[in-house]
Write a structure and sequence with these properties.
Layout lengths: L3 E7 L6 E7 H4 L2 E6 L3 E6 L3 E6 L5 E5 L6 E5 L2 E6 L6 E7 L5 E7 L2 E7 L4 E8 L6 E8 L4 E8 L9 H8 L9 E4 L2 E9 L3 E9 L4 E7 L4 H4 L6 E3 L4 E6 L4 E6 L4 E6 L7 H7 L11 H5 L3 E4 L3 E6 L2 E6 L22
Antiparallel strand pairs: 1-2, 3-4, 4-5, 5-6, 7-8, 8-9, 9-10, 11-12, 12-13, 13-14, 15-16, 16-17, 17-18, 19-20, 20-21, 21-22, 23-24, 24-25
Length: 341
């Protein structure tokens, strides 16, 4: 007899819950999940992808032509970058509304890209870091692969020289974590590590509204940057990220505006029983949990209005906007465990 698993999607604004079933055996094959305001996209077996339209409940499935190194979802557009482990880099876009799947173009030194899902425009940036100052080639494409505009300019880094060899590993999009290259409205942001004798960081940001690429140099990247490319990280805005330090059981908050780091112990709820046993194992309460289970005991996520921490016991939701306090079905008041704070 076949068993099924249940996926559930909770709308924090309306409290509405959407659920659908999937073969339980297949559920464990999924290795990534992406969300937009309308679509849920699941990847499994490296090259298989399933997309659900949460408005119509229509499902689409596709076998991808290759393994893509970086995938992102912007509204109804799935953007996929393929490197085949070395340049050139190829960008494909799957329009989930029309079902159209297209190869846009191939790029030699792709470092940053932005998609405007409303205007069906791709903006790509190829940067030659070996030149001083770095040389940028910006191109603009429509989704049929037609080149609309191109220009070349130098990237201002306040007269700082970039060592291309030190930047080599970071500037590639191979195995680029999704949360280190993200879209915030009409802005696209990426962080590059410049790891010489002293750890530094280059913060790239493209503002589509004014068609401008800028770079910010951090001379002394704080400890949070050491974890930026490692899970579990929650990037709330283009300048604020949270990192969960499992060994110390605290949250590290990093603010790029003033280069500050704030740490706070995680406050457990009284009903978070299983996760406390996983994070505070004692000789008398060994439960046979694996290192991977302990590593994934607490997962974090969020945006500028909501931060969340998910465990087997439930989900903590922190609301930053006092005007956004939805009435969620099944939600209960927080019951702190005093010794955890």
């Amino acid at each position: 007899m076949e068993t099924t698993g249940i996926f559930e999607l909770l709308n924090l604004e309306t409290g509405e819950k959407l659920a659908w079933t999937e073969d339980e055996g297949l559920m464990y094959d999924y290795w990534d999940l992406l969300l937009s305001d309308r679509y849920v996209v699941l990847f499994k077996e490296l090259r298989s992808v399933i997309a659900w339209d949460t408005y119509t409940l229509r499902q689409q499935a596709r076998k991808l032509p290759c393994v893509f190194d970086h995938i992102s979802l912007e509204r109804d557009k799935l953007i996929m970058v393929d490197t085949e482990f070395e340049p050139p880099y190829t960008i494909h876009i799957w329009d989930l509304s029309s079902g159209c799947f297209r190869k846009i173009n191939t790029f030699s030194d792709l470092c940053l890209w932005h998609v405007d899902a409303d205007e069906n425009i791709l903006v790509a940036f190829e940067i030659d870091w070996d030149k001083h100052p770095p040389e940028v080639r910006q191109t603009k494409w429509n989704f049929t692969g037609q080149l609309l505009d191109k220009r070349q300019f130098n990237l201002s880094l306040s007269d700082r020289d970039v060592d291309g060899k030190i930047l080599e590993l970071s500037k590639s999009v191979i195995d680029l974590p999704r949360y280190s290259c993200r879209t915030y409205g009409h802005k696209r942001v990426r962080n590059l590590s410049h790891c010489g004798t002293q750890r530094r960081e280059i913060h790239l940001m493209y503002d589509y509204a004014i068609d401008k690429l800028s770079a910010q140099w951090f001379d002394k990247a704080p400890p949070a940057f050491d974890y930026f490319n490692l899970p579990p990280v929650a990037v709330l805005t283009s300048k604020i990220l949270y990192y969960w330090c499992r060994d110390r059981r605290w949250l590290m908050l990093f603010n790029a505006d003033n280069i500050s780091v704030l740490t706070r112990p995680y406050q457990f709820d009284a009903r978070e029983i299983r996760v406390r046993k996983l994070l505070w194992p004692s000789a008398s309460s060994q439960d046979g949990a694996t290192a991977d289970e302990r590593e994934r005991a607490l997962l974090i996520f969020g945006d500028r209005e909501v931060f969340g921490a998910a465990t087997e016991d439930g989900i903590q939701l922190w609301f930053f906007n006092p005007n956004f306090t939805p009435d969620l079905p099944g939600a209960e008041p927080f019951l702190p465990v005093q010794e955890s704070a």
